[in-house]
TrEMBL record:
Name assigned to this protein: HTH luxR-type domain-containing protein
Domain HTH luxR-type as annotated: residue spans: 259-316
Organism this protein belongs to: Streptomyces musisoli
Length: 327
């Protein structure tokens, strides 16, 4: 701690200090009971080695210059300390994995403009993956904004970023949204649809999460949060995978709409059978009882005019041949 720090706010000279300094400069001792600490800290005086209890006055201009020098030195030390911060933060990479610090946690984005700006900034720098859930019913949007979204997605895909999005099932019946999704999938994005209610989220690189506002009462309707606590982000990433695994592939949804005879649940059962699961295993995987699965299989055979499940799966293989490589 420097002398200036020790003196603290007590270094400020008072009218009494001015009067005492004048006495010492004239060769007189300070009055009894007077604290000379402020004058000593500012180096306006020093103890007189040849006169016990006496003091020697110094030129105030020299004291001012000395004070300036000390302040500069203190500032330089502070600058040196601050310059170490990036190096200290870089050491976090070597922190024991079981002690990984997840925060700091989040920032509140009080408007749609702020949300879009931060999302655009983080999304433009995405390096590995971009995941999103858009659970609401689709609505017409500004075509210019949609074109910008397509271009952003295309640019990310060209950088090697994996893009996965989940939309509400009704998106297939909304021409503008369907056209937008088909443009994305043509560029390599993966899209699925779901009728399950879910949160609106955007996940980027397993490090950034954007969610609606559920904290600030009275916040703007499109306000939200940018979360970057690692534990919270990775938990939501696991939730996204649950929704993804239970959603319908966009290509399958299109086939279902075109094929007509089968329901989405029936298509799901056939996909599970095609993946190698037995009819006994399908039920627990998709949340149906064994009886419900058997009932659906009977309905499938009737809808397709097939006598056996072998014929059904042969029909499924022919219907699915163009998508055999999708997941």
């Amino acid at each position: 701690m420097s002398e200036l720090d020790k003196a603290g706010t007590e270094s400020r000279l008072t009218e009494e200090d001015f009067a005492v300094y004048q006495l010492i400069a004239e060769g007189a001792p300070p009055p009894n009971g007077y604290d000379v600490g402020r004058l000593l800290a500012l180096r306006l005086i020093d103890a007189d080695p040849y006169s016990p209890g006496g003091y020697i006055a110094h030129d105030p201009r020299g004291a001012a210059q000395g004070l300036t020098t000390r302040i500069r030195n203190d500032l330089q030390r502070l600058v040196d300390y601050v310059s170490q911060i990036p190096a200290l933060e870089r050491l976090a990479d070597h922190w024991d994995p079981h002690r990984l610090y997840g925060g700091p946690g989040s920032e509140y984005l009080a408007s749609a403009a702020q949300m879009n700006a931060r999302l655009g900034e983080i999304g433009a720098a995405a390096a590995s993956e971009f995941c999103a859930i858009q659970p609401g019913e689709p609505a017409d949007r500004d075509p210019a904004i949609l074109r910008l979204g397509v271009e952003r997605t295309r640019t990310a895909l060209q950088r090697g970023v994996t893009v996965r999005s989940i939309y509400h099932r009704s998106a297939h019946e909304h021409p503008q949204t369907r056209e937008y999704i088909e443009a994305m999938t043509a560029d390599g994005a993966e899209v699925r649809a779901s009728t399950l209610p879910g949160p609106r989220i955007v996940l980027i690189d397993k490090r950034h999460l954007f969610i609606d506002n559920h904290v600030i009462d009275g916040g703007e309707g499109n306000s939200g949060w940018h979360v970057f606590d690692r534990a919270a982000v990775m938990w939501v990433r696991a939730v996204f995978d649950l929704f993804w695994n239970h959603a319908t592939r966009w290509a399958d949804l299109c086939r279902t709409a075109a094929a007509g005879p089968l329901t989405q649940r029936q298509w799901r059962i056939l996909r599970e059978l095609d993946a190698g699961y037995s009819s006994q295993q399908v039920g627990p995987r998709i949340g149906l009882s064994r009886r419900a699965v058997d009932k659906e299989l009977a309905a499938i055979r009737e809808a397709l005019g097939c006598a056996t499940m072998y014929q059904v799966m042969a029909w499924y293989g022919r219907s699915n041949k163009d998508e055999s490589g999708s997941s």
